[in-house]
Here is the input.
Amino acid sequence: MDTRRRLTEAFDTWSAWADARAADGDRFEPHLADLAARLRGGRPSPPRAGAGHPVEPPYRAALVGRFAATLVELEGRVCDGDPGTAALADEVVAELAAMFGLPAAYGRLTSGGAMANLEALRVAREAHPERGIAHSADGYAAHERGCDVLRVPAHCVRTDAAGRIDLDALATLLAKERVGTVVVGAGTDTLGAVDPIADILALCRNHDVRVHVDATHGGFFTLLAGAVELRGTPAARHLRAIAGCDSVAVDPHRRGLHPHACGALLTRGTNGSEEAGPGQGRRPGETGLDQAPPGATAAALWLTLRALPLTPDGLGELLADRLRSTRRWRDLIDGEPELMLYQEPELDILTYLPLTGEPRPRLSSVATASRHIVKADPPDAEPPVHLSTLRVRVLDFLIRHPRAVADRNDTHILRSTLLGPECVAHVRPAHERLTALAAAAPRRVHTAEPDARSASVESVM
Here is the structure.
């Protein structure tokens, strides 16, 4: 795509209007050089793949669409006041709903995934004002904070050895507590774990409990539920089950190659409420806390979905590359003497840890080595790796690695998500870079048995 030409067309559209109005360039033009100098020190999203932060660098179509709409958006005009961008918002919401198998759902764009989830919690409170909300212990931290903001009782459900909601624990909770909605994750932001949505949905229906899906991190992988990369896996079954849930929060900013400040809440229509049109009062999902986002958000997402449609061979093909690359890197780590998998990846998030040279690794040693690797990786290194750490609780670590010595209550491991369309070619050099960093990490070789305090903590676990 000729980005410069497209941006020039957008600018010409704006300048035709601006030239007819009084110019105020003399107020800011003297400061433009200073602003350019300050921005020059920053770095845009790297054009090549990285392996740390789970946010995809924005696709060029998204940047062009956002810039084009911003140029003609007067006085912060929003979608509701602009029929052009309002129509674009309706189109993209319909496409997102169709992706999840919710053609009768209604929805709206929000200022981000966190706000979409907050609006969903507000809907849950209005649907069952006398009941609480259950969420995963490994789910998005904003769920518990949102319940606190809305003054709704929050019930935290323990997870299994793969980071998914434990069905037995949830069944026990539903039998004991007054729960109106269960929040499930379609790919958690920590481990990429997909909760057993199909089984939870059946359980909740027996208790007259709603199910909200936080699909902000892994929802777009629904495009691959029938593809070879996920076919026959538990994740595919549970992603397909989203179609039977009551609401879904999705964040194109995460896996949809979209710029910041974009989310969407989709709510299943009931009693004909999906027929309600604009101006017919507030609909479920509209909390009043988040007004309609600027029309630039709708325009940017609309143009992105024209370039990368929500189909297996559109955006799905890029996601398939990430799954294949993740599994290739998983195999490399599994055969690497310097590293060890924390758990098997379910989607595109890899979690692993450096080996510390101890027969029974101490959690303190794992944390020290992980932090050393992250700090030792300079931001301008070639190839770029951009590693990040993940804090894990002692119980969660010991469930997966029972021989570890619990000399502290938590530890830090390494977490990676391959980014960018170049991720396939990036796996091998990124792994070699990571291996070199792990080999240089501090080590402590212990031949003696753990001290009494460590042994007693481990025995309790």
